[in-house]
Amino acid sequence: xxxxxxxxxxxxxxxxxxxxxxxxxxxxxxxxxxxxxxxxxxxxxxxxxxxxxxxxxxxxxxxxxxxxxxxxxxxxxxxxxxxxxxxxxxxxxxxxxxxxxxxxxxxxxxxxxxxxxxxxxxxxxxxxxxxxxxxxxxxxxxxxxxxxxxxxxxxxxxxxxxxxxxxxxxxxxxxxxxxxxxxxxxxxxxxxxxxxxxxxxxxxxxxxxxxxxxxxxxxxxxxxxxxxxxxxxxxxxxxxxxxxxxxxxxxxxxxxxxxxxxxxxxxxxxxxxxxxxxxxxxxxxxxxxxxxxxxxxxxxxxxxxxxxxxxxxxxxxxxxxxxxxxxxxxxxxxxxxxxxxxxxxxxxxxxxxxxxxxxxxxxxxxxxxxxxxxxxxxxxxxxxxxxxxxxxxxxxxxxxxxxxxxxxxxxxxxxxxxxxxxxxxxxxxxxxxxxxxxxxxxxxxxxxxxxxxxxxxxxxxxxxxxxxxxxxxxxxxxxxxxxxxxxxxxxxxxxxxxxxxxxxxxxxxxxxxxxxxxxxxxxxxxxxxxxxxxxxxxxxxxxxxxxxxxxxx
Amino acid sequence: xxxxxxxxxxxxxxxxxxxxxxxxxxxxxxxxxxxxxxxxxxxxxxxxxxxxxxxxxxxxxxxxxxxxxxxxxxxxxxxxxxxxxxxxxxxxxxxxxxxxxxxxxxxxxxxxxxxxxxxxxxxxxxxxxxxxxxxxxxxxxxxxxxxxxxxxxxxxxxxxxxxxxxxxxxxxxxxxxxxxxxxxxxxxxxxxxxxxxxxxxxxxxxxxxxxxxxxxxxxxxxxxxxxxxxxxxxxxxxxxxxxxxxxxxxxxxxxxxxxxxxxxxxxxxxxxxxxxxxxxxxxxxxxxxxxxxxxxxxxxxxxxxxxxxxxxxxxxxxxxxxxxxxxxxxxxxxxxxxxxxxxxxxxxxxxxxxxxxxxxxxxxxxxxxxxxxxxxxxxxxxxxxxxxxxxxxxx
Lengths: 553, 395
Description:
- The structure holds two protein chains of two kinds.
- By secondary structure, chain A is an alpha+beta fold.
- Chain A is built from 13 helices and 24 strands.
- In chain A, the strands form six sheets. In chain A, strands 4-5-22-23-3-24 form a six-stranded antiparallel β-sheet, covered by helices on one side. In chain A, strands 6, 11, 12, 13 and 21 form a five-stranded antiparallel β-sheet that branches. Chain A has a five-stranded antiparallel β-sheet with strand order 14-15-18-19-20, with no helix packed on it.
- The radius of gyration of chain A is 39 Å and the shape is elongated.
- The C terminus of chain A is likely disordered.
- By secondary structure, chain B is mainly alpha-helical.
- Chain B folds into two domains: 275 residues, no CATH class; 94 residues, no CATH class.
- In chain B, a hairpin with a 5-residue loop joins strand 1 and strand 2.
- At the A-B interface, helix 4, helix 5, helix 10, strand 9 and strand 12 of A face helix 2, strand 2, helix 9 and helix 10 of B.
C-alpha cells in the first residue's frame, strides 16, 4: 500500500488521520471534525488500517475497544450470576450427589436448574475461563495495537503545526496581544511555561510546551501488570506450583502433613476462647451466647531426618513450636498452615464389652478408634471381634436396607461386627449403632454392649503453598503503578505561534483534566498578555457561567 | 461523660451540621438573583462549606473516640462501616470542593451522606468484640482504603445526579425522566426505612418468634416491626403479638424481607404525599436549584472523581483484600460474594473509563453510568452484606 502524502510533502503511513509533520487532517472524517480526535495524532493504528487476512480480522476483533468493553460487561454480568446462590466450594457435602441434593433441597427447582447449568461452580467452568482468557487477549492486542503508534506519535512531535490543526483543537485563541509590545511575547510565554514545569521546544516564533507526557503510558503499564497477574493465576493450573490440602488433627496426635513431604505435625493443644462481653443487641436477636475470640492450635513441626525411610515417624527432628491462630499461619519453607476449622469434644474412641446376653458375663473389652478403626480386635486366640463395616456418620438405611453414612466424620458411628467366640467360631453378625442393635438372625448369643466413649478436640488446618505469589505481587504492583500514572497525571500540550504581523495563534490539548490546563492558560494569558482563549465545546451560555464560576472562586 | 457517649454525641453533631449545611447550600443557590445578590450567595455558600467542615471534624472525632474506646478501627459491623462510608463521602466532597470550588455539588452529596448515616443508625450501635478472622491490622488498612475508594467513586454519581437534574428535560415524557425520578423515589424509600424503624423503636414494639433455620435447627428471633413475613415454620412466642401474615421458606430471611416491605410502604406514602402536596415531580422541584450549574464542569468532576477513586478502590478493595485473604485463609481469592461484587464494581468502572476514553461516552451517558456504578456500590454494601450470606456478612 502506498503512503499518504500530505500537502506539506510529508509521507505518512497508510491509515494516518493527522499529518505527523504539520498536523493537517488527512482523512475526510478528520477534515469534517470541529475538534480533532487527538488520541493517536500523526500515526496509524494497525487495526484501523488492515482488514484483509484472517489474522487481520482476529487482530481487529481483539483490538477493538467495543469488543473489550463488551467482554468486560459480559464477565461482570456472568460473575454476578455466581453470587445468586452459594457456590459449591461453600457447600459442606461429601460428594457430587450430595451437592446436587443440597441445591434441590435448599432452593427447590431453581436450585436444581442452577446446579445443572453449572452455575453452582461457575468460576471453574471452562467457558468462564475462556471468557477471562479472551479478556486477557483483548488487553494484550489492544495495548500493542494502540501503544506503539501512540509512542511513535509522541516521540515525533513537531513544534510548528498547520492552521487546520490548530483551529481544530478544543481550546484555541487567536489575535494580538492585549497590551504592550508583542516582539518578545513568545519569550515571555516560554519563561512562564518553564516556571509552570512545562518542557518547552522552540522553532523560531513557534513554541510547543508539554507536560506529563509519561502519563500517556499509564494505561499500557497497568495493562502489562494485569497480564502478568493473569499469567500468575494461569500458572496455578500447573503441577508443583500450587498446593492446597487440608488435614484434621486431634490433640496429642502426630501426623504427616499432606502435600508437605517429610514434615510431621503434632497437635499439643487446641484452644477455643470467647469474649466475656455483655451480649449485644445483634447477639440477642440472633440468639448467640458468646462471640469467638480465639481459635488456636499449639503445634510442633517436625521434619524427617534426611536418611529416614519415607513415612517413618521415629526419626523426627523438631523444626519449630508455634501457635497457629487465624490471621497468624505457621510459615515454613514456602508452605503455610492455616487455622481453618475445629471440632470440640469430638468422639474419639468407643468402647464395647463383648457380653453374653443371657449371663451378662463379659469376655473382654474392645476400644475402637473412630478415625482409624482396625479390621479386627483380638481379645485372645479364640475370641476376637471383626469390624466388617463402619459408618462414621450413620444416617439410616436406604431402600435396599443398606446402612448409609453422611460424612467421614464420626458424628454418629455405626458398626457391623462379627463376634468370634468359643461358642461360635464362625462368628455372629450384629449391626450396632447408638441405642440401636440389629441382628440378621435375631438369636445371637453375644452382643457388643456399649461401655464408654472418649472425646477429644480436633483442629482443622489447611496447608498451602503458592509459588506464583511473587509473580502476582509484581503484576499487582505494576498495575497499580500504571493506574496511578494514568490517573493522577495528565498530558498537557500548548502550541503557540506568532506570525510576521504580530498576531498570535494558540491551541491547547490535554487528555484529561481541562479544568487544570485552563488554569495554566489563564496564567500565561495574563503574564504574556495573550488573546483570550475559548473552549470550542462550551456553548456560549455555558461560557458565561464559567465566568461566573471564576468570579466566585 | 464516657468516651463512647462522647463519640455518640459527636456523630449527632456531625449529622446536624450536614443538615444545616445542606439548607445553607440550597439557600445560597436559590438566592442568586441578578440584583447583586451574588456576593450574598457566595457568602452563604462559604458558610455552608465551613459548617460542612465542622461537621466532618465532629464525624472524625466520633471515629477516633470510638476507635480508642473499642480498641479497633470502627469499621467492623454494619453500623460502623456505613457511618464511616458516610464520613468518607463528605470528606471526598470537601476534597473535590477545594479542587473545583463548586458548592452546588454539596446539594446532592450532603443529603446522600445524611441518608447513609441515618440508615446506618438503624443498626445496633454497640461496640462489638472482634471475631478471630477480623483481628488483624488488615481490617483497618483494607476496609478504610476500600471505603475511601468507594466514597470518591460515589462523588461521580453525585456529580452525575446534578448533571442529569439539569440536563434531563422533565417536561417531556421519556425514559430518562422516568429513571431520574426512580432514583429520587429510591432515596425517599431510604427515608421510609428510617421513619419506620424509628417509629416502631420509639413505640417500643417487640415480638419474639421461634423458627426453624435452613440447617433444621430451632432458633429464636426478635422482630422490632410488625411481622408481615414470618420466618420458616415460625411460632409466636410473645403474647398478643400478631402472627406473621405470610410465612417464607428457610432460605429467605422473613425479618429482613419484612423490613424492606415496611420501608417500601412508608417510603411510597411519603412520596405520594410529596407529589400530592407539591403537585410536581421531585426532579421538577430540584431543577431550579441546579439551573446555574455548568454541565461541562460537572461532567469533568464526575470523570475526575472516578479517576481519583478508581486506583484507591483497586488498592483497597482488591489488592489489600487479596493480601489479607492470603494471610487469613491462605488463598488470595476465593469467589466469596463480597469479593465477586468488588470485582464487578471494578470491572464496571473499568468499562466506564474505556467507554469514555475510546467511545466518547461523556456528559449525559457518563452521568448515567456513574449512577449505575453507585448502585453497584450500594448493592455491594446492602444486599451482599444482608442478603447474600458469605464470609463478609455483617449481620
